[in-house]
Amino acid sequence: MLVRSYKAAFILLFTLVLVLTGCAGKKDPKEALSSAAVQALSMESYVMDNQIKIVDLSYTSDDSSSYTAAQVGAVFSILKDAEINISGIYQQDPMQSELTLEIKLTGDMSTTIKVPMVVTEDKLYIKIPSIPFLPLPDTVVGKFLVMDMQEMIEQSGQEFNPEMFDPNKSKKLTGEITGAVFAEYDEATYFKNVDPKDAGLPEGISAKQVVQFSVTNDNVKPALEILIHKVTPKLLDIIEKEEYRSLIGVTPEQIEEVRTGLQEENQSEIGAALDEMLEYLSVHELTLNTAIDKKDYPVYQDANIDLEFNDPSTNDTVRLALQFNSSFSKINEKQTFEIGIPTDTITMEQFEQEMGGLGY
Question: Which Pfam families did the record assign (predicted)?
């Protein structure tokens, strides 16, 4: 009898510990996102997979027979249902990344274009694809166009700064920006927890918590006002720091120009421009779900964006609906690169010579 009592007490205590641990692991939505953003800074290697799908892209006009309407409609029909996929592998030390950009078009221009890329500390390699509607010389297709980072920056008229490629500074900047943004948005209005079972997570994604950030047509105006009047000044304070100015290549004069535009004497003009924009904009849906695993890593995100722009003066309407998802796996594990450092390369000068020979 005594043994059974000890067993019952132990089971009760163990159950209580599990409950308390579960409660401690699940944080308030905004705190959970902030913690995940900080934890993401410790990701020194990972495999990523991103997808953007254009669910709807349409244009309607009272003057549907006009040349402009026909041209816009033709372009939109090509882009509707298009997919952009970006998959890749990243490691911080030594810095190396592989990315594959895949663009899928449907309709009359149905085609798939794949562009593998490799990035190192000082080089960018882009594999020249075969594009059906843009024939390129056989002498360049399939080769990797290699570009020197320093030369690219200096040719653009900017001074090369090695700190621009410092991953630790980039991570630190991202952390400060994320903190500044989250701090200004009210948790009860814009954030909520979603049960992981109801979040539609893909197979293989395990999450202890899913947080949703959302903006509706009812709160889009205050959300934009917060962005303009509260978030932006904080962001300017952050990037004004010398370590970050040199990182992103902005000058004190450029920062001051933006800050001047936000001064009190310009508030009425900003407000009028915002009101005018909101006459055009309708937010049907704008949600971002972030799945956080047991180690506090943001391992999966998906977003649904459905916006409509209507010009009251012409009654022209553009509808844009996007679906986005992004996942991270093999975090901080040893990565295996599929491409490696390309050897079948061509320089920009050689590429231009080949293209010039065909009259491009």
Answer: DUF6612 (PF20316)
The tens digit of pLDDT for each residue in 54-89 reads 999 988 887 766 667 778 877 888 788 899 999 999
Strand pairing class (111-120; 144-148): unpaired
User: What are the DSSP E strand ranges found in the chain?
Assistant: 45-60, 83-91, 96-105, 111-120, 123-127, 144-148, 191-194, 209-214, 281-292, 298-311, 316-329, 345-347
Which tokens in the block code for residue 291? 């799945």
Query: How far from the centroid of its chain's Cα atoms is residue 194's Cα?
Result: 21
User: What is the per-residue pLDDT for 158?
Assistant: 64
* 286 in Cβ contact with 215 (< 8 Å): yes
What's the confidence (pLDDT) of residue 17?
42
Upstream peptide bond of 29 is cis (omega within 30 degrees of 0): no
By the 8 A CB rule, do 291 and 301 touch?
Answer: yes
| DSSP 8-state assignment for residue 43 | -
In a domain, 3, yes or no: no
- What span, in angstroms and rounded, lies between the C-alpha atoms of 238 and 228? 15
> Any idea how long the chain is?
360
Residue 7, domain member (yes or no): no
Count CB neighbours of 190 within 10 A.
20
Environment class of 289 (CB within 10 Å of its CB; exposed 0-12, middle 13-18, buried 19+): buried
Per-residue model confidence (pLDDT) at position 340: 93
- pLDDT score, position 34: 87
**Residue 8 maps to a domain:** no
Neighbours of 311 (CB within 10 A): 12
Give the contacts of 287 (CB within 8 A, at least 6 positions apart). 212, 213, 214, 303, 304
CA torsion, ordered 270, 272, 273, 277, to nearest 10 deg: 140
What domain count does the chain have? Answer: 1
Domain assignment of residue 295, given as a range: 29-357
Query: Which residues of the chain are under the pLDDT cut of 50?
Result: 1-24
Locate 230 and state its tokens: 């509260």
Give me 325's structure tokens: 């998802």
Residue 21 lies in a domain: no
Write down the pLDDT at residue 130: 86
pTM as predicted: 0.82
